[in-house]
Every structure is written in structure tokens, then in C-alpha cells.
Amino acid sequence: MPSLTIATFNCENLFLRYKFNSKSDAAKAVENGFIIDVKKFDAVLEEERKLTAAAIKEMNPDILALQEVESMDSLKAFNARFLGGAYKYKAMIDGNDPRLIDVAILSKVPFDHVQTHQFRRSGSSYIFSRDCLEVTFTVGGKPLGFFVNHFKSMIEGRDESMPRRTLQAKEVVKILKEKYGNDPSKHDWVMLGDLNDYQPSTAIEALVKTGWMENVVERLPEEEQWTHAYRNDLRQLDYLFLSSSLAKRNTSVKPVIVRKGLSLNVKNYTGPRFPGVGKDRPHASDHCPVGIKINI
Question: How far is CA 9 from CA 36, 116, 222, in A?
């Protein structure tokens, strides 16, 4: 029975361009045509990308879902320069985010099918903030589906943005039923990514209450389930859902969360850090890679 390590990681602004100092600066950066006001952004430090890569290497996944990737070119450049070309296969489709932060896949395993769901609508509006990127692999002669997400952020406020995330979660459930029928539990698939919310949440509840997927991060003790640090506010925002079929074949397996790339300002985490991590910057990300080794 083949085994794979799978993971998800919001790598925070994997750009080949620039990082805006603020949201308002992003809106005003282009003043006339393609003339860029350089005072409104900072360079992304090479040291940060090295730390991002260190966190990925520590996890060493066979299939890695990423969030906040600017483009296929930036994904290829990062893989070549910082990961030593470890990942031969790459999937990314430009999504709906005006800041060009998209979802992507890096994989050591070839895939058979890539599909975007970014054009799904509710009324006149797109449902997904970025995309629900669907990638299908064949492992051990059987199909294995990946559904990579990055739900609406809480930037306007958690309560104010909750309806959008709930809508997105319900649309993911709809996509899974369209793909696998009314009982997706019998098929092998993974739904993962930065869902930008913590429990209890109507968005997460819409996924959990189906009864045919498991949030495997909950296999860890409650105090160890956090994946994101905002100062010293520690929450689980990043999720690995396995279909019931996969979860039942891997009941004894627990996920791993790599926190060594967090900034020193996250004082509630007292574990080891990668060399070069700073008080605030550089760091690998404000999120942690989350992974698990499963039998297929």
C-alpha cells in the first residue's frame, strides 16, 4: 500500500514582485498606467524565502498545497531556487483575488486533471475569494482528489465576513457531491487549505457536519491544534480534511505542525526556531505548515 506525506501551507506573499506596506497603498500603487510608486512597497527579503523553504523541507511533503502564490512563474522560481527543484509537478490557475494571491500545488507525484471552480457565482458575485482548485492524482492505481482552498479573510471583522466563508464552505460540499455523488465518504480525497476561521464557526461546521470528512488536526491535543499566530493569539486557521474512506484507513496517524519558522514575537511558542528567524521579520510565515503521512 503506497504512502504519501501531504501538507498545506499559507506561505505568505510568495511573490516575484513587491509587498505592499498597507491595503490602501496597494490600491494606490499604480498612479499612471504602469508607473509604480516605489514608496508604497517593500522588497520581500530573500531571508524570508529561505525560511519559508526551510519550513517546507522540514515537513518534506510529497504533495503540498500552497496559499498566497502570485503566479506560476513565482512558483517555479521558488521551487528552483529555494527548494532545489524538488517538485517536478506544479498546478496553479490565476483566481479571483485582486492582490494576485492564489492557491497552488507542488508535487513529486504526477497529476491527471486540474480544474478551477473560481467562476461559481452567488447572484452576480463570485463565491470563492481565490479558488477551490481541484487536482486529481493516481496513486497505487486509484484516483486521489485534492481540493485546495483559501477562504475569505477576517479583515473586515470575523462576524461580518462569516457569511462569505460559510457560503464558500457550503459550495465546497456541493462540489464534492457533484464529483463523488451524495456519499463522498466512499472515495479518496483531501480538502485542505487556509480556511481563515477557527471553531466554533458556521463555516467549519458546514464541513464537519457532513459526516463524511474528518478534520485530522483534531487528532492532536486541543492546545496543540493551532496553526496561525497573530502576536500571541494562537488559532487553527489551516485545515486538513480527509474523506472518511481515507481517514478510516489511517486512524492511528497524527498530523505534524512545523512552527520553527514563526517570529520571536510569538512568545507563547517556546519551541525551537530556524536559524535566522527575527523578532518580527524575517520569518517563514505567520502560518505553519500542516502535514500528515497517510496510506492510500
Answer: 30, 19, 20
The whole domain housing 65 covers 3-295
Q: What is the CATH number of the domain that holds 164?
A: 3.60.10.10
Output the pLDDT for position 238. 98
Per-residue pLDDT reduced to its tens digit, 102-115: 999 999 999 999 99
For residues 55-59, average pLDDT: 98
pLDDT at residue 17, as a whole number: 64
In the chain, the number of structural domains is: 1
Quick check: 37 pLDDT over 80? no
- The set of long-range contacts for 184-188, using a CB threshold of 8 Å and a minimum separation of 24, is 184/210, 184/212, 184/213, 184/243, 185/211, 185/212, 185/213, 185/243, 185/244, 185/245, 186/244, 186/245, 187/143, 187/145, 187/243, 187/245, 188/142, 188/143, 188/144, 188/145, 188/243, 188/245, 188/246, 188/296
Rounded Cα gap, residues 126 and 243, in angstroms? 26
